[in-house]
């Protein structure tokens, strides 16, 4: 009789509870905008429901549309309730949270707005709100300098009664020159220790886990270099289009929106040397060193090593979707890229000769953000004769999202006669190990700012190092012949020509459906 062995359910490991930060008043410029509604409010709502924001925590949304506090609360309730990011939504929790929300309507160009804000903060303090102030700039990079100057003009940068910190959203500037100028403006008003340049990818659990995976295991780090690694592939593909952000996207494009920050951060964490400690500066210093080792491309290299694309109409999940140029607010002859693929070289001792292929695109076939580290094949001496078959080279896939986890592929002998190699996988899944109750990126990052921890934020010289790589590409694209847009269909794998960036046996991974 066959014995049936029950599958042992994986024991879930408890996610660590989040700490309680010092309370503050969070002032969101762009308070009724897309980011505030989709990401920031759901995150602070969850933090508050979980008791992380403390007594005296309040929020002021600042924006141009005229709205009463009640209108603002109703609009935010709708966004938080509909958001997948708010894990703790209930009518009861909302009731407790709603009273913390305030709205201030004002023109960000006008000094009066900041005087009014200072007055409002003082009144709230007298009524029991915290005297710590966290200013969040959820506004386009071109408007950020005005807000910073306004805060300085109203004396809101100096807070004798508590701390004043400022968070600046990405993209930080639009090229090297504007990033330098924005750094100068913000450091003229706030000191570096109070400035938090946000890149929400750094708040993702799976991104932070790269440090643990690489430096907390003796198995991988000795192999993590040019002697063993053939190439590294980093993909951030999303089925989403530009949504209602056409104005922003027309000016920004995929290179500035995704590569200049998120993808270069993924690359630098994958490639960095071990820091001597986990202090903010020790970690950031090693990331900056990687970015500095990426040689900016010449015009000729940009022509050979970059591909840009724009989606046309297509079919996504069985539905017809329009092309980028047909999206509301997009010019009929727009040349903004919605897809980028690049080959970058990190010219240092560890990585010399190893290509880093990165790509990102909107309206792609699947949602998939993943880092794949491809190892070199073993010598072909043993398994290539007669019926035998060599297994594929090893790959470590770090799945950032969705289906978060890490898979290691390796060769196994296919049972039976002969020595036929096949590729099998060891797969760690966040869902199985921890459940899905892990904090979302904006929760982690907002809590970090409240606690004064800048490790997961980008340093001033780091954003400049990112632009030093990206700006020559933008400049070269302006000089090179214009590509034929659209050049990929919505719902596809991106422009076919991107496969030409890889040579030999190298291939982009196919975008696959989740769950696998
Ligand atoms: C934002 C970009 O920074 O990141 C968006 O502006 C993009 O265009 C988003 O959709 C992707 O973030 P995530 O966390 O969904 O991968």
- Measured as a percent range, the helix fraction is 25-40%
Poorly predicted parts: 1-9
Number of strands: 18
Biggest sheet character: 8 strands, mixed
Number of helical segments? 13
Assembly state = single chain
Question: What sort of overall outline do the alpha carbons produce when their principal axes are compared?
Answer: globular
Radius of gyration: 24 Å
Structural class: alpha/beta
Mean pLDDT: 91
Termini distance? 34 Å
Q: What is the strand content?
A: 15-25%
Bound molecules: 6-O-phosphono-beta-D-glucopyranose
| Widest beta sheet: strand line-up | 8-12-13-7-14-15-16-17
Structural notes for this entry:
This protein has an eight-stranded mixed beta sheet. It has a six-stranded parallel beta sheet with strand order 3-2-1-4-5-6, sandwiched between helices. With 516 residues, it is of the alpha/beta class. The radius of gyration is 24 Å and the shape is globular. Mean pLDDT is 91; it is low at 1-9. α6 runs antiparallel to α13, α9 runs parallel beside α13 (460-479) and α10 (299-305) crosses α13. The protein has 13 helices and 18 strands. 6-O-phosphono-beta-D-glucopyranose is lined by residues 238, 240, 257, 369.
Topology, element by element:
Layout: E1 25-29, H1 34-49, E2 58-63, H2 69-82, H3 91-98, E3 101-105, H4 111-126, E4 133-137, H5 144-153, E5 164-168, H6 176-189, E6 195-197, H7 205-215, E7 229-237, H8 246-271, H9 280-293, H10 299-305, E8 306-309, E9 311-312, E10 314-316, E11 319-321, E12 339-345, E13 355-361, E14 368-375, E15 395-401, E16 405-413, E17 421-429, H11 430-434, H12 441-451, H13 460-479, E18 488-489
Parallel strand pairs: 1-2, 1-4, 2-3, 4-5, 5-6, 7-13, 9-18
Antiparallel strand pairs: 7-14, 8-12, 10-11, 12-13, 14-15, 15-16, 16-17
Helix pairs in contact: 1-2, 1-12, 5-6, 6-13, 8-9, 8-13, 9-13, 10-13
The structure holds 6-O-phosphono-beta-D-glucopyranose.
Residues 238, 240, 257, 369 line the site of 6-O-phosphono-beta-D-glucopyranose.
């Amino acid at each position: 009789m066959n014995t049936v062995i029950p599958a042992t359910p994986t024991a879930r490991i408890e996610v660590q509870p989040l700490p309680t930060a010092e309370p503050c008043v969070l002032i969101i410029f762009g308070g009724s905008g897309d980011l505030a509604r989709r990401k920031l409010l759901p995150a602070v709502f969850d933090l508050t429901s979980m008791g992380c924001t403390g007594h005296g925590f309040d929020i002021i949304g600042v924006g141009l549309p005229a709205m009463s506090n009640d209108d603002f609360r109703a609009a935010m309730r709708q966004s938080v309730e509909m958001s997948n990011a708010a894990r703790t939504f209930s009518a009861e929790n909302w009731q407790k949270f709603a009273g913390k929300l305030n709205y201030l309507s004002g023109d960000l160009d006008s000094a009066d707005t900041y005087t009014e804000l200072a007055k409002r903060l003082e009144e709230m303090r007298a009524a029991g709100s915290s005297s710590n102030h966290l200013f969040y700039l959820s506004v386009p990079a071109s408007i950020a300098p005005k807000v910073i100057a306004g805060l300085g003009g109203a004396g809101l940068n100096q807070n004798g009664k508590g701390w004043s910190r400022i968070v600046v959203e990405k993209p930080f500037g639009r090229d090297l020159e504007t990033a330098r100028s924005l750094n100068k403006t913000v450091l003229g008003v706030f000191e570096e220790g109070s400035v938090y340049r946000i890149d929400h990818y750094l708040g993702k659990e799976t991104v932070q886990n790269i440090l643990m995976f690489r430096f907390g295991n003796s198995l991988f780090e000795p192999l993590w270099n040019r002697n063993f690694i053939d190439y590294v592939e980093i993909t951030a593909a999303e089925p989403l289009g530009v949504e209602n952000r056409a104005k922003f996207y027309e000016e920004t494009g995929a290179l500035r929106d995704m590569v200049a920050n998120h993808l270069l951060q993924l690359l630098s964490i994958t490639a960095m040397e071990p820091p001597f400690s986990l202090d903010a500066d020790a970690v950031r210093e090693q990331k900056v060193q990687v970015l500095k080792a990426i040689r900016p491309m010449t015009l000729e290299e940009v022509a050979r090593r970059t591909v840009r694309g724009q989606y046309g109409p297509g079919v996504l999940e069985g539905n017809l979707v329009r092309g980028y140029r047909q999206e509301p607010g997009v010019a009929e002859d727009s040349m903004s890229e919605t897809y980028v693929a690049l080959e970058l070289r990190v010219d240092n001792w560890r990585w010399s000769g190893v290509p880093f292929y990165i790509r990102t695109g909107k309206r792609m076939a699947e949602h998939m953000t993943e880092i794949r580290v491809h190892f070199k094949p073993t010598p072909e001496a043993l398994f290539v004769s007669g019926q035998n078959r060599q297994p594929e080279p090893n790959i470590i896939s770090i799945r950032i999202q969705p289906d978060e986890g890490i898979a290691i592929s390796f060769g196994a002998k296919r049972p039976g006669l002969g020595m036929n190699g096949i590729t099998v996988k060891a797969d760690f899944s966040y869902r199985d190990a921890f459940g899905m109750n892990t904090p979302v990126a904006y929760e982690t990052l907002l809590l970090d700012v409240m606690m004064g921890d800048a490790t997961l934020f980008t340093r001033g010289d780091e954003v400049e190092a990112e632009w030093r790589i990206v700006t020559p590409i933008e400049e070269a694209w302006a000089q090179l012949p214009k590509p034929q847009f659209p050049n990929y269909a919505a719902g596809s794998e991106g422009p076919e020509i991107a496969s030409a960036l890889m040579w030999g046996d190298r291939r982009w991974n196919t975008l696959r459906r989740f769950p696998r």
